[in-house]
Amino acid sequence: MRIYQAKDYNDLSRKAANIISAQIIMKPNAVLGLATGSSPIGTYKQLIEWYKKGDLDFSEITTINLDEYRGLGPDDAQSYYRFMHENFLDHINVNTNNTNIPNGLEMDSEKECGRYNEVIAKSGGIDLQLLGIGLNGHIGFNEPGTTFDKETHLVNLSEATIKANSRFFNSYEQVPTQAYSMGIKSIMQAKQILLIASGENKAQAIYDTICGPITPMVPASILQLHNNVTIVADTDALSLILKEHEILKGGQLK
Ligand code: F6R
User: Fold this and answer.
1) Do residues 34 and 43 make contact, with C-beta atoms less than 8 angstroms apart?
2) Which residues surround ligand 1 with Cβ inside 6 Å?
3) With 0-12 CB in 10 A as exposed, 13-18 as middle and 19+ as buried, what is 250?
């Protein structure tokens, strides 16, 4: 694991965008695994800016998103489809035929998960998977307790995740209780993984991911076993690790 400390969210977003840019420049037809949520918004903004300047070309890129709420589709303001189009895809020259998000409107979960696994397989594999991390250590919507051997599957969202995500909805009751998500197995098959985290409320999840035991109770801890993981986190998200580092150097806990 490579861990980069960013000063703040802006710095984190620029660093993450630089890593993704490098991937696009080195492989113009790369397959990018993408995430939604607050964490990647700044990264997408930065990539859009560089695209508009003429520094990046997405015309041969394929994108494959991690997840989508079951029951929401393009017409729903809170769907991940809308999030991705509004925050990224509509502002770059990606071929929309090459953009992939689970279809939340397909109620036959076996059919949709099978289709999505095919999409991933046919793409030739994800070159770079961008990940945020949940307060409970989830990646994608793989909640604590999910086994590591899953591909795309139907998830019952945990109460903690529903509560955390209710900030994007008018009320807690409006948050869907299920989602389609790439599984840990699919994520671990990506050639490179870039996890970003910002804010003190992510400090425990980041600490457990990097320093804790590998356990399904902290889904992101499995990343310790991947051979090409980069974590870019701001000082607040790294605070518990930095504190421990101080103690190990012989400093006193202040
Ligand atoms: C989103 C996703 C989730 C988020 C995580 C963090 O596609 O898969 O795992 O990355 O919930 O969300 P934010 O960035 O909003 O804190």
Assistant:
1) no
2) 35-39, 66-67, 132-134, 138-141
3) exposed
pLDDT in tens, the chain (254 residues): 999 999 999 999 999 999 999 999 999 999 999 999 999 999 999 999 999 999 999 999 999 999 999 999 999 999 999 999 999 999 999 999 999 999 999 999 999 999 999 999 999 999 999 999 999 999 999 999 999 999 999 999 989 889 988 988 999 999 999 999 999 999 999 999 999 999 999 999 999 999 999 999 999 999 999 999 999 999 999 999 999 877 666 655 44
Residue with the smallest CA separation from ligand 1 atom 9 is 140
Active site residues: 67, 136, 138, 143
> 140 C-alpha vs ligand 1 centroid, how far in Å?
7
Distance CA(19)–CA(27), nearest Å, equals 12
Closest C-alpha residue for ligand 1 atom 4? 132
